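WARN no homologs supplied; continuing
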Amino acid sequence: MSSGYSSLEEDAEDFFFTARTSFFRRAPQGKPRSGQQDVEKEKETHSYLSKEEIKEKVHKYNLAVTDKLKMTLNSNGIYTGFIKVQMELCRPPQTSPNSGKLSPSSNGCMNTLHISSTNTVGEVIEALLKKFLVTESPAKFALYKRCHREDQVYACKLSDREHPLYLRLVAGPRTDTLSFVLREHEIGEWEAFSLPELQNFLRILDKEEDEQLQNLRRRYAAYRHKLQEALREVWKPD
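OK structure emitted
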């Protein structure tokens, strides 16, 4: 079972892992990050709670932590901390030949990520896939939150724009109250497939439709032949 520690910092230009593998996500050259975009993203993240509420919750969160994975509140109001994501993949995903012994398909594989309050669900999914050198599109995967209430377990898929660390802060550090799970999209969610895959599905459907039409034509041709023979027998001169 893997429990790789990962770091995904939004206030740095690079997203990086500090165990076994490393990857870097840099802004494309010639297209520097817009300061206005950062401001808007920060506003969106902190629209849930005021700065004083965040400060109070971070303090209470750290008092309840038992595994030393505390949160840190920065002077700009952005806080950083840790989330644990359990891998629950039904099938082995496509990985790079250089992926080595990493096994993202292992049931129950747990990963600890160090992230910022500005990091979104989409960024967390991308980071996990890059850690395991998964070559499939992040759109094929979804992050779920698992809640435990009154001996019942509820799983809810998170949207790509939600912020996992905010959910962790509000729920507290106990994973038996809230935990995160990475899964494949449910069957039938076509947006999870790439354009070439969808085009291939269409070709298969066209082929099956053509085969069904040919079978139908053969059946009706046989019926027509039998009917014509019956008519010839009826009108056969005595």
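Residues 144 and 157 are 4 Å apart (CA to CA).
OK
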